[in-house]
Amino acid sequence: MADEAPGWEAIDAACRQLHGTQTPKHVGYPPGVHLGAGLQGCSAYDADDHWHYVTYGLTELWAKEEGADPEVSGWGYELTMRVVKAGPEPEGWPFNELEFIARHTRTRGHPFRVGDRIDRERPIGGLDQTRLTAFAVLPDPELVPMTTPNGSFEFRQLVGITADELTEMRATSTEAVLNRLRRASPKLVTDPRR
Fold first, then answer.
1. Domain housing 150
2. Is 77 within a domain?
């Protein structure tokens, strides 16, 4: 049936298991992934002291695409980001950053793996008063890998880092710096004020 979306339903189920029955703030990205957008959509969930953003569209949401790897759904991952609360509604800039990074994956054929760093070479989100200029990629600490009729995938979290932290990661390793940052924020919540 054309309207079946086993991939979308799997993401919804994972988020429901973690966040309960709350209704997230959801945005779509017209015209959608089949017509050039990086993502189909993104939801932001209230996670107490932060918003948990989860993407839809780097995996195969509807039918398995012809010629695709039967074991892997799409690119094999969806992106997440945890952003400290700055008000009663999720901020818009993480929706934009996640779509930009997903579009980069699609247009350049460049997936982002755990341990990678993404240098935005400017303040993330276009925020004037943040020192965060890059992202590190890690497994989402609470959303586990999934298997769907379209193949398996995992959730990869982006965490905002400073230029100094990026330099330190290049000199040592991404994980070494993230382990240090986890002491202050175990779930590695991105805080643009730091």
1. 6-182
2. yes
Answer whether residue 118 is part of any domain: yes
For residue 109, is it within any domain? yes
| Residue 187 within a domain | no
Encode 71-100: b = buried (16+ Cβ within 10 Å), e = exposed. Answer: eebbbbbbbbbbbbbeeeebbebbbbbbbe
Number of domains in the chain: 1
Check if the beta carbon of residue 127 is closer than 8 Å to that of residue 146.
no
The answer to whether 182 and 189 are in contact (CB under 8 A) is no
Q: Which of 170, 194, 188, 152 is nearest to 52 (CA)?
A: 188
> What is the spatial distance between Cα 70 and Cα 47, in angstroms, rounded to a whole number?
34
Whole-model pTM over 0.85: yes
Tokens of 161: 């880092």
pLDDT, tens digit, for every residue of 8-31? 999 999 999 999 999 999 999 999
pLDDT of 64-121, one tens digit each? 988 889 999 999 999 999 999 999 999 999 999 999 999 999 999 989 999 999 999 9
